[in-house]
Amino acid sequence: MVGEEGAFVLGWDEVLTEEELSMTLKVLCMSEEEFKEYKDQDGWEDDSEEEENSTLSNEALSRLKTPCKKLLYDSVLLTLESYGADLKAEQDLLNNKEAYEKLSRREQQALHVRYGQKRILHQLLELVQ
């Protein structure tokens, strides 16, 4: 369901791997009975037309059912914990010209990538609170 890397791709405005995330949330938020019924009916391939046409925009994420929002929220927190520094530390480093210039070009680029990733994750936290 999640693909080879086991990760979802989030953008500023929407989920870029929306089909995978939507299906994963649907399955993980099912009760055992609902999952058995879904599996028995070969539900993996036959989702409703409404679900196929929906997108996981930021607005749609904020309207998810509470169990799905909680699952996303907890997942984002775990992802943020996997980083060595928090968003504020990265922002402070970006704002400290002297310290930033001491970084190699590669370290500067990595800092910008991490900072962008963390900003998107924090935005997602706000959407699913």
TrEMBL record:
Gene3D superfamilies: Rubisco LSMT, substrate-binding domain. GO terms for biological process: methylation. Residues 43-53 have a biased composition (Acidic residues). The keyword Flavoprotein does not apply. It is found in: Nucleus. Pfam families: Rubis-subs-bind (PF09273). Residues 38-59 are annotated as: Disordered. The keyword Methyltransferase applies. Its main location: nucleus. Residues 4-121 form the Rubisco LSMT substrate-binding domain. GO terms for cellular component: nucleus. Keywords: Methyltransferase, Nucleus, S-adenosyl-L-methionine, Transferase. This is N-lysine methyltransferase SETD6.
